[in-house]
Design brief:
The structure is a single chain. The protein folds into two domains: 217 residues, Spore Coat Polysaccharide Biosynthesis Protein SpsA, Chain A (Alpha-Beta Complex), CATH 3.90.550.10; 156 residues, 60s Ribosomal Protein L30, Chain: A (2-Layer Sandwich). 30% of the residues lie in helices and 29% in strands. The protein has twelve helices and 19 strands. The strands form five sheets. Strands 1, 4, 5, 6, 7, 10, 11 and 12 form an eight-stranded mixed beta sheet that branches. The chain has a five-stranded mixed beta sheet with strand order 16-13-19-17-18. It is elongated. The structure holds magnesium ion. The site of magnesium ion (MG) has 5 residues, from strand 13 and helix 8.
Protein backbone atom coordinates (compact mmCIF):
# COMPACT_ATOMS: atom_id res chain seq x y z
CA UNK A 1 0.00 0.00 0.00
CA UNK A 2 1.29 3.42 -0.84
CA UNK A 3 2.37 5.71 1.98
CA UNK A 4 0.47 8.76 3.20
CA UNK A 5 2.37 11.77 1.92
CA UNK A 6 1.75 15.39 2.84
CA UNK A 7 3.48 18.50 1.57
CA UNK A 8 4.34 21.40 3.85
CA UNK A 9 4.93 24.79 2.26
CA UNK A 10 6.54 27.56 4.23
CA UNK A 11 5.07 30.77 2.83
CA UNK A 12 5.31 33.09 5.82
CA UNK A 13 8.29 35.14 4.61
CA UNK A 14 8.20 38.72 3.40
CA UNK A 15 10.42 38.13 0.32
CA UNK A 16 11.67 41.68 -0.07
CA UNK A 17 14.76 40.78 -2.16
CA UNK A 18 12.55 40.09 -5.19
CA UNK A 19 11.57 43.76 -5.41
CA UNK A 20 8.92 46.03 -4.02
CA UNK A 21 5.25 45.16 -3.69
CA UNK A 22 3.63 41.94 -2.53
CA UNK A 23 5.52 39.21 -0.68
CA UNK A 24 7.08 37.21 -3.50
CA UNK A 25 4.99 34.08 -2.96
CA UNK A 26 1.88 36.10 -3.85
CA UNK A 27 3.33 38.01 -6.79
CA UNK A 28 1.68 37.13 -10.10
CA UNK A 29 3.51 35.01 -12.62
CA UNK A 30 1.66 34.82 -15.91
CA UNK A 31 -1.27 36.35 -14.03
CA UNK A 32 -1.28 33.60 -11.37
CA UNK A 33 0.24 33.97 -7.86
CA UNK A 34 3.57 32.17 -7.40
CA UNK A 35 2.12 30.17 -4.48
CA UNK A 36 -0.66 28.81 -6.68
CA UNK A 37 1.89 27.63 -9.29
CA UNK A 38 3.81 25.90 -6.49
CA UNK A 39 0.68 24.25 -5.06
CA UNK A 40 -0.39 23.07 -8.50
CA UNK A 41 3.05 21.55 -9.16
CA UNK A 42 2.68 19.49 -5.96
CA UNK A 43 -0.98 18.64 -6.52
CA UNK A 44 -0.09 17.37 -10.01
CA UNK A 45 1.63 14.42 -8.28
CA UNK A 46 -0.94 11.77 -7.36
CA UNK A 47 1.07 10.61 -4.36
CA UNK A 48 0.57 13.92 -2.52
CA UNK A 49 -2.38 13.34 -0.20
CA UNK A 50 -2.72 16.92 1.03
CA UNK A 51 -0.84 20.17 1.57
CA UNK A 52 -0.34 22.29 4.66
CA UNK A 53 0.68 25.89 4.02
CA UNK A 54 2.24 28.07 6.71
CA UNK A 55 1.44 31.74 6.11
CA UNK A 56 1.98 35.18 7.64
CA UNK A 57 -1.01 36.44 9.69
CA UNK A 58 -1.24 39.53 7.43
CA UNK A 59 -1.58 37.40 4.30
CA UNK A 60 -4.93 35.64 4.89
CA UNK A 61 -6.77 37.51 2.10
CA UNK A 62 -3.83 36.94 -0.29
CA UNK A 63 -3.75 33.25 0.61
CA UNK A 64 -7.51 32.88 0.12
CA UNK A 65 -7.32 34.53 -3.30
CA UNK A 66 -4.28 32.48 -4.36
CA UNK A 67 -5.85 29.15 -3.42
CA UNK A 68 -9.46 29.63 -4.58
CA UNK A 69 -10.88 26.41 -5.98
CA UNK A 70 -7.87 24.20 -5.18
CA UNK A 71 -8.50 20.89 -3.44
CA UNK A 72 -6.43 18.81 -0.97
CA UNK A 73 -5.41 21.89 1.06
CA UNK A 74 -5.52 21.88 4.84
CA UNK A 75 -6.53 25.12 6.58
CA UNK A 76 -3.44 27.38 6.71
CA UNK A 77 -1.54 27.92 9.96
CA UNK A 78 0.58 30.92 10.92
CA UNK A 79 4.36 31.04 10.91
CA UNK A 80 6.64 31.71 13.86
CA UNK A 81 9.52 34.12 14.32
CA UNK A 82 11.95 32.13 12.16
CA UNK A 83 11.87 29.37 9.57
CA UNK A 84 12.34 26.57 12.12
CA UNK A 85 9.35 27.76 14.13
CA UNK A 86 7.24 28.09 11.01
CA UNK A 87 8.06 24.54 9.91
CA UNK A 88 7.32 23.25 13.41
CA UNK A 89 3.92 24.97 13.39
CA UNK A 90 3.16 23.27 10.09
CA UNK A 91 4.36 19.85 11.29
CA UNK A 92 2.24 20.12 14.45
CA UNK A 93 -0.80 21.02 12.37
CA UNK A 94 -0.18 17.94 10.23
CA UNK A 95 0.21 15.73 13.33
CA UNK A 96 -3.52 15.53 14.00
CA UNK A 97 -3.95 13.37 10.87
CA UNK A 98 -0.31 12.52 10.51
CA UNK A 99 1.21 11.46 7.19
CA UNK A 100 4.04 8.95 7.05
CA UNK A 101 6.15 11.21 4.82
CA UNK A 102 6.35 14.99 4.63
CA UNK A 103 7.77 17.03 1.74
CA UNK A 104 8.90 20.42 3.06
CA UNK A 105 8.97 22.82 0.12
CA UNK A 106 9.75 26.48 -0.58
CA UNK A 107 6.77 28.54 -1.74
CA UNK A 108 9.07 30.27 -4.22
CA UNK A 109 9.99 27.15 -6.24
CA UNK A 110 6.98 27.03 -8.54
CA UNK A 111 8.45 24.77 -11.26
CA UNK A 112 9.01 21.56 -9.28
CA UNK A 113 9.23 18.66 -11.75
CA UNK A 114 7.28 15.58 -10.55
CA UNK A 115 10.30 13.32 -11.11
CA UNK A 116 12.01 14.95 -8.12
CA UNK A 117 9.20 13.74 -5.86
CA UNK A 118 9.61 10.22 -7.29
CA UNK A 119 13.37 10.29 -6.59
CA UNK A 120 12.85 11.56 -3.04
CA UNK A 121 10.27 8.90 -2.22
CA UNK A 122 12.60 6.23 -3.54
CA UNK A 123 15.51 7.55 -1.45
CA UNK A 124 13.37 7.51 1.71
CA UNK A 125 13.38 3.71 1.42
CA UNK A 126 16.99 3.80 2.68
CA UNK A 127 17.24 7.01 4.74
CA UNK A 128 14.95 9.00 7.05
CA UNK A 129 15.59 12.15 5.01
CA UNK A 130 16.40 13.16 1.43
CA UNK A 131 16.96 16.37 -0.47
CA UNK A 132 17.34 17.25 -4.15
CA UNK A 133 20.59 19.00 -5.02
CA UNK A 134 22.79 19.79 -7.99
CA UNK A 135 26.54 19.35 -8.04
CA UNK A 136 28.41 22.63 -8.33
CA UNK A 137 30.01 22.70 -11.79
CA UNK A 138 31.17 26.33 -11.99
CA UNK A 139 34.56 27.30 -10.62
CA UNK A 140 34.31 28.79 -7.14
CA UNK A 141 36.21 31.90 -6.12
CA UNK A 142 36.45 33.70 -2.87
CA UNK A 143 36.14 37.42 -3.58
CA UNK A 144 36.66 40.55 -1.53
CA UNK A 145 35.80 44.15 -2.45
CA UNK A 146 34.89 43.11 -5.97
CA UNK A 147 38.17 41.29 -6.63
CA UNK A 148 38.91 37.56 -6.91
CA UNK A 149 41.19 36.46 -4.07
CA UNK A 150 41.46 32.69 -4.03
CA UNK A 151 39.96 29.67 -5.78
CA UNK A 152 37.86 27.32 -3.69
CA UNK A 153 37.58 23.59 -4.12
CA UNK A 154 34.13 22.65 -5.43
CA UNK A 155 34.69 18.93 -4.83
CA UNK A 156 31.64 17.47 -3.13
CA UNK A 157 29.73 20.76 -3.08
CA UNK A 158 26.05 20.79 -3.97
CA UNK A 159 23.38 23.44 -4.48
CA UNK A 160 20.42 22.44 -2.32
CA UNK A 161 16.85 22.58 -3.56
CA UNK A 162 13.52 21.61 -2.03
CA UNK A 163 11.34 19.70 -1.25
CA UNK A 164 13.29 18.25 1.63
CA UNK A 165 11.63 14.90 2.30
CA UNK A 166 11.44 13.17 5.67
CA UNK A 167 9.87 10.39 7.57
CA UNK A 168 7.22 12.48 9.33
CA UNK A 169 7.56 11.16 12.88
CA UNK A 170 11.37 11.43 12.67
CA UNK A 171 11.49 15.07 11.58
CA UNK A 172 8.80 16.09 14.06
CA UNK A 173 10.83 14.47 16.86
CA UNK A 174 13.98 16.20 15.59
CA UNK A 175 12.24 19.57 15.82
CA UNK A 176 11.04 18.84 19.34
CA UNK A 177 14.53 17.82 20.43
CA UNK A 178 16.31 20.75 18.77
CA UNK A 179 18.01 23.18 21.12
CA UNK A 180 18.84 25.90 18.58
CA UNK A 181 17.22 27.03 15.32
CA UNK A 182 18.78 25.45 12.21
CA UNK A 183 19.09 26.96 8.72
CA UNK A 184 16.70 24.36 7.35
CA UNK A 185 15.37 20.90 8.06
CA UNK A 186 18.30 19.06 6.52
CA UNK A 187 20.67 20.97 8.81
CA UNK A 188 18.42 20.13 11.76
CA UNK A 189 18.27 16.45 10.81
CA UNK A 190 22.05 16.26 10.48
CA UNK A 191 22.49 17.98 13.87
CA UNK A 192 20.40 15.15 15.28
CA UNK A 193 22.62 12.53 13.66
CA UNK A 194 20.15 11.54 10.95
CA UNK A 195 21.22 10.35 7.52
CA UNK A 196 19.98 12.60 4.69
CA UNK A 197 20.34 11.27 1.15
CA UNK A 198 21.04 13.50 -1.86
CA UNK A 199 18.99 12.90 -5.00
CA UNK A 200 19.48 14.57 -8.38
CA UNK A 201 17.92 18.05 -8.45
CA UNK A 202 16.76 19.83 -11.57
CA UNK A 203 17.73 23.23 -13.00
CA UNK A 204 14.04 23.92 -13.66
CA UNK A 205 13.39 23.78 -9.93
CA UNK A 206 15.03 27.16 -9.30
CA UNK A 207 14.01 29.50 -6.51
CA UNK A 208 12.54 32.92 -7.27
CA UNK A 209 14.72 35.32 -5.34
CA UNK A 210 15.75 38.32 -7.43
CA UNK A 211 13.85 40.51 -9.93
CA UNK A 212 15.88 38.70 -12.63
CA UNK A 213 14.46 35.37 -11.46
CA UNK A 214 10.97 36.79 -11.83
CA UNK A 215 11.72 38.09 -15.31
CA UNK A 216 13.00 34.63 -16.31
CA UNK A 217 9.98 32.90 -14.79
CA UNK A 218 7.63 35.31 -16.54
CA UNK A 219 9.23 34.44 -19.89
CA UNK A 220 8.91 30.73 -19.19
CA UNK A 221 5.33 30.95 -17.94
CA UNK A 222 3.69 33.05 -20.59
CA UNK A 223 3.28 31.04 -23.75
CA UNK A 224 2.08 33.66 -26.21
CA UNK A 225 -0.29 31.91 -28.63
CA UNK A 226 -2.38 34.14 -30.84
CA UNK A 227 -5.09 33.64 -33.41
CA UNK A 228 -6.15 36.18 -35.98
CA UNK A 229 -9.02 36.11 -38.42
CA UNK A 230 -9.48 37.59 -41.84
CA UNK A 231 -12.45 38.12 -44.13
CA UNK A 232 -12.59 39.54 -47.66
CA UNK A 233 -14.92 39.80 -50.63
CA UNK A 234 -14.24 40.60 -54.27
CA UNK A 235 -16.89 41.05 -56.99
CA UNK A 236 -16.78 39.33 -60.37
CA UNK A 237 -16.04 41.36 -63.45
CA UNK A 238 -15.41 40.54 -67.10
CA UNK A 239 -12.57 38.14 -67.68
CA UNK A 240 -11.65 34.49 -68.09
CA UNK A 241 -9.77 33.54 -64.90
CA UNK A 242 -9.61 34.23 -61.15
CA UNK A 243 -6.52 34.16 -58.96
CA UNK A 244 -6.92 32.32 -55.64
CA UNK A 245 -4.01 31.56 -53.28
CA UNK A 246 -1.68 32.59 -56.08
CA UNK A 247 -3.16 30.11 -58.58
CA UNK A 248 -4.73 31.18 -61.86
CA UNK A 249 -8.00 29.26 -62.29
CA UNK A 250 -9.94 29.48 -65.56
CA UNK A 251 -13.47 30.85 -65.05
CA UNK A 252 -16.25 32.70 -66.85
CA UNK A 253 -15.30 35.88 -64.96
CA UNK A 254 -12.35 37.57 -63.26
CA UNK A 255 -12.34 39.19 -59.81
CA UNK A 256 -12.41 42.96 -59.57
CA UNK A 257 -9.83 44.66 -57.39
CA UNK A 258 -7.06 47.17 -57.14
CA UNK A 259 -4.45 44.40 -57.01
CA UNK A 260 -4.83 40.96 -58.60
CA UNK A 261 -7.94 40.55 -56.37
CA UNK A 262 -6.70 37.28 -54.81
CA UNK A 263 -9.43 37.24 -52.20
CA UNK A 264 -8.10 34.09 -50.48
CA UNK A 265 -4.56 35.40 -50.10
CA UNK A 266 -5.84 38.76 -48.86
CA UNK A 267 -7.84 36.97 -46.20
CA UNK A 268 -4.85 34.96 -45.01
CA UNK A 269 -2.75 38.13 -44.95
CA UNK A 270 -5.36 39.88 -42.81
CA UNK A 271 -5.49 36.92 -40.41
CA UNK A 272 -1.73 37.26 -39.87
CA UNK A 273 -1.91 41.03 -39.35
CA UNK A 274 -4.86 40.41 -37.02
CA UNK A 275 -2.89 37.96 -34.88
CA UNK A 276 -0.18 40.60 -34.52
CA UNK A 277 -2.76 43.34 -33.91
CA UNK A 278 -1.02 45.32 -36.65
CA UNK A 279 -4.02 46.56 -38.58
CA UNK A 280 -4.98 45.12 -41.95
CA UNK A 281 -3.88 44.83 -45.54
CA UNK A 282 -5.53 48.14 -46.47
CA UNK A 283 -3.45 50.02 -43.90
CA UNK A 284 -0.18 48.42 -45.03
CA UNK A 285 -0.96 48.76 -48.76
CA UNK A 286 -3.45 51.62 -49.27
CA UNK A 287 -5.56 51.17 -52.45
CA UNK A 288 -5.02 54.91 -53.02
CA UNK A 289 -1.37 54.20 -53.87
CA UNK A 290 -0.91 53.46 -57.56
CA UNK A 291 2.07 51.24 -56.73
CA UNK A 292 -0.18 48.32 -55.76
CA UNK A 293 -2.37 48.49 -58.90
CA UNK A 294 -2.53 45.04 -60.42
CA UNK A 295 0.07 43.82 -57.92
CA UNK A 296 0.48 40.09 -57.31
CA UNK A 297 -0.90 39.54 -53.82
CA UNK A 298 2.09 37.53 -52.63
CA UNK A 299 3.84 40.82 -51.81
CA UNK A 300 1.09 41.48 -49.24
CA UNK A 301 1.37 38.01 -47.74
CA UNK A 302 5.16 38.17 -47.66
CA UNK A 303 4.96 41.49 -45.80
CA UNK A 304 2.76 39.89 -43.14
CA UNK A 305 5.13 36.91 -42.90
CA UNK A 306 8.03 39.34 -42.47
CA UNK A 307 6.15 41.14 -39.66
CA UNK A 308 5.44 37.82 -37.92
CA UNK A 309 9.15 37.03 -37.88
CA UNK A 310 10.11 40.56 -36.84
CA UNK A 311 7.81 40.33 -33.85
CA UNK A 312 9.40 37.02 -32.79
CA UNK A 313 6.50 34.75 -33.70
CA UNK A 314 6.19 31.61 -35.79
CA UNK A 315 3.13 30.72 -37.84
CA UNK A 316 1.87 27.36 -36.65
CA UNK A 317 -1.36 27.08 -38.65
CA UNK A 318 -3.39 28.71 -41.40
CA UNK A 319 -6.93 27.71 -42.29
CA UNK A 320 -8.71 29.39 -45.21
CA UNK A 321 -12.26 28.84 -46.44
CA UNK A 322 -13.27 30.07 -49.89
CA UNK A 323 -16.99 30.70 -50.40
CA UNK A 324 -18.40 30.58 -53.96
CA UNK A 325 -20.66 28.56 -56.28
CA UNK A 326 -18.03 28.52 -59.03
CA UNK A 327 -15.31 27.91 -60.00
CA UNK A 328 -14.87 24.54 -58.31
CA UNK A 329 -12.10 24.87 -55.69
CA UNK A 330 -11.64 21.19 -54.77
CA UNK A 331 -9.44 20.22 -57.75
CA UNK A 332 -7.08 23.14 -56.96
CA UNK A 333 -7.03 22.98 -53.14
CA UNK A 334 -3.85 20.88 -52.90
CA UNK A 335 -1.91 23.25 -55.17
CA UNK A 336 -3.26 26.25 -53.23
CA UNK A 337 -2.07 24.75 -49.95
CA UNK A 338 1.36 24.09 -51.46
CA UNK A 339 1.64 27.69 -52.66
CA UNK A 340 0.66 29.15 -49.27
CA UNK A 341 3.08 26.76 -47.53
CA UNK A 342 5.85 27.85 -49.91
CA UNK A 343 5.21 31.57 -49.40
CA UNK A 344 4.91 31.38 -45.62
CA UNK A 345 7.73 28.86 -45.20
CA UNK A 346 5.69 26.47 -43.05
CA UNK A 347 4.95 22.77 -43.46
CA UNK A 348 2.16 21.68 -45.76
CA UNK A 349 0.33 19.96 -42.93
CA UNK A 350 -0.03 23.35 -41.23
CA UNK A 351 -1.93 24.87 -44.14
CA UNK A 352 -5.58 24.16 -44.84
CA UNK A 353 -7.55 25.46 -47.84
CA UNK A 354 -11.14 24.39 -48.19
CA UNK A 355 -14.26 25.61 -49.90
CA UNK A 356 -17.98 25.83 -49.50
CA UNK A 357 -20.92 27.22 -51.43
CA UNK A 358 -23.56 29.36 -49.76
CA UNK A 359 -26.39 27.14 -51.09
CA UNK A 360 -27.19 29.66 -53.81
CA UNK A 361 -28.06 32.26 -51.15
CA UNK A 362 -26.73 35.78 -50.97
CA UNK A 363 -24.22 37.46 -53.25
CA UNK A 364 -21.95 34.44 -53.45
CA UNK A 365 -24.99 32.25 -54.13
CA UNK A 366 -26.03 34.50 -57.00
CA UNK A 367 -22.54 34.28 -58.44
CA UNK A 368 -21.77 37.97 -57.95
CA UNK A 369 -18.35 37.41 -56.36
CA UNK A 370 -16.20 35.31 -54.05
CA UNK A 371 -15.83 35.63 -50.28
CA UNK A 372 -13.11 34.10 -48.14
CA UNK A 373 -12.31 33.78 -44.46
CA UNK A 374 -9.15 32.62 -42.71
CA UNK A 375 -7.71 31.92 -39.27
CA UNK A 376 -4.01 32.11 -38.54
CA UNK A 377 -2.31 30.86 -35.36
CA UNK A 378 1.02 32.25 -34.17
CA UNK A 379 3.29 31.18 -31.31
CA UNK A 380 5.94 33.41 -29.75
CA UNK A 381 9.33 31.79 -30.04
MG1 LIG B 1 -9.10 42.15 -50.90
Amino acid sequence: MSKKISALIVAAGRGTRAGAGLPKQYRPLGGVPVLRHTLQALLAHDAVRDIQVVIHPDDVPLYDAATAGLSRLRPPVFGGKNRSESVLNGLEALANDAPEIVLIHDAARPFLPPEIIDSLLLALGDAPGALPALQVVDALWHGEDGAAKAPRNREGLHRAQTPQAFDFATILKAHHSATAPADDDVALAIQQGLNVAIVEGDERNYKLTTPQDFARAERETMIDIRTGNGFDVHAFTEGNAVILCGLKIPHTHALLGHSDADVAMHTITDALFGALAEGDIGQWFPPSEAEWKGAASDIFLLKAVERVAARGFAITHIDCTIICEAPKIGPHAAAMRAEIARLTGIDLDRVSVKATTSEKLGFTGRGEGIAAMATATLVKL
